[in-house]
Amino acid sequence: MAKKGNFPLTDWLETHWTTPAFSGWLLAVLALCFFGAATNTMAGWLYVLSGTILALLILGAVLSVRSLSQIQVRRRPLNPVNAGDDLTVELIIENNAKSPKTLLQLWDLVPIVMDKPENKAIESIAPQGEQHWTYYLNTQQRGVYHWHEVQLRSGSPLGLFWCRRSQEVPAKAVVYPQILPLNHCPLIDTIGQEESDNRQSDRRFQGANEGVTKALRPYRYGDPMRMIHWRTSAKYDEFQVRELEVITGGEDIIICLDSESPWIDDNFEQAVIAAASLYSYAHRAQLNVKLWTAKTGVVHGNRTVLETLAAVSKEEEDDKQILPKLPLIWITENPASFENLPAGSRWLLFPQENNKIASLFIKNLRGLVINSEQPLQTQLQKIPQ
């Protein structure tokens, strides 16, 4: 990272060899003055003085270059975080020399879209020792960020010359989208309900709950209240929740983000947050939930899904990924895309304008129209129309 005010030549010298500091330039001028005076007066002591200053300058230049040798920088892996949380970055600076390294400056050149480059001053590193540098980046925007350069700078030990070197220390930071805590979500709870009701009604003549309730377990935060088995809860004096054999008609829940279409930027970011929140809710409910985007197709697994949502962008190239022929949750800005949805699907529409949209959607599909002026979390917990 070039310091502001540096000329291109001095910056090139600092990164490829070494460049004089202000004190170094001052001593160089004094050495020239003493040498000029010595040639005019033929005074030997002036020659000695100018030579001594010149030797001091050469020593300072050589030592400044050596001060950065045998220093190795390593980086610990970065753990993914959600947007709005602090990203912990830890660097380890190792001194492999048999002498101490003093007065170092470090810059970690993080992407400008995340934050300004972080810097640290290190007073001393013992021989064969190491120094840990931990700092925190506040993440505001989801994404997958890469950077690879750490710069070291030193004027040690005399402060007459500056030397700067770069090291390749690759970093990959994954910032997941924000996840809204949903206490209930009828959009997911009701998907496939028609098919499930039909299948279960064929079994109820047996006079048992076979195929309906698979097991009972203690209540966990986020479980729908409708799943509480009140009789058993009263018996054990704590909430017991029913686990159903069939919730979505035996099908997977697939959350589909219409990433191939053009979007308004704010709408798309809200859509990604909605997709992440719906996935998290279904995952907590132990449903077989997956994600579909135009670029990746169907992906599953908590880490894979969240990384996909961190990297997704609007108007992605369609790698000929075909929508699954199953009931799904379609998140889009284009209501015309409802034509291609399988029966029993749900939709989440982010209109370009907050105009009232008539509920005449194709195939009697149910869903929610998101109003950008209202909290997204509240709207995701509404009953679909």
Unreliable stretches covering 5 or more consecutive residues: 1-5, 195-211, 245-250, 358-362
Beta content comes to: 25-35%
* Mean pLDDT figure: 83
Tell me the series of helices and strands, N- to C-terminal. HEHHEEEEEEEEHHEHEEHEEHEEEH
Class derived from helix and strand content:
alpha/beta
- How much helix is in the residues? 25-40%
The DSSP helix count reads: 9
N→C terminal distance: 55 Å
Number of strand segments: 17
Q: Please compute the radius of gyration using only Cα atoms.
A: 32 Å
Largest sheet: 6 strands, mixed
Shape: elongated
Keywords:
385 residues; alpha/beta; six-stranded mixed beta sheet
Give me a quick take on this structure.
The protein is of the alpha/beta class. It has 9 helices and 17 strands.
Explain how this protein is built.
The chain is of the alpha/beta class. Helix content is 28%, strand content 28%. It has 9 helices and 17 strands. It has helices at 8-16, 22-41, 44-66, 186-189, 193-201, 230-236, 265-284, 302-311, 376-380, and strands at residues 19-20, 71-75, 81-82, 86-95, 101-108, 118-125, 130-138, 143-154, 161-176, 213-218, 240-244, 253-257, 289-293, 297-299, 328-332, 346-349, 366-369. Strands 1, 3, 5, 6, 8 and 9 form a 6-stranded mixed beta sheet that branches. It is elongated. The chain starts with 7 loop residues before the first helix and ends in a 5-residue tail after the last helix. The model is unreliable at 1-5, 195-211, 245-250 and 358-362 (pLDDT under 50).
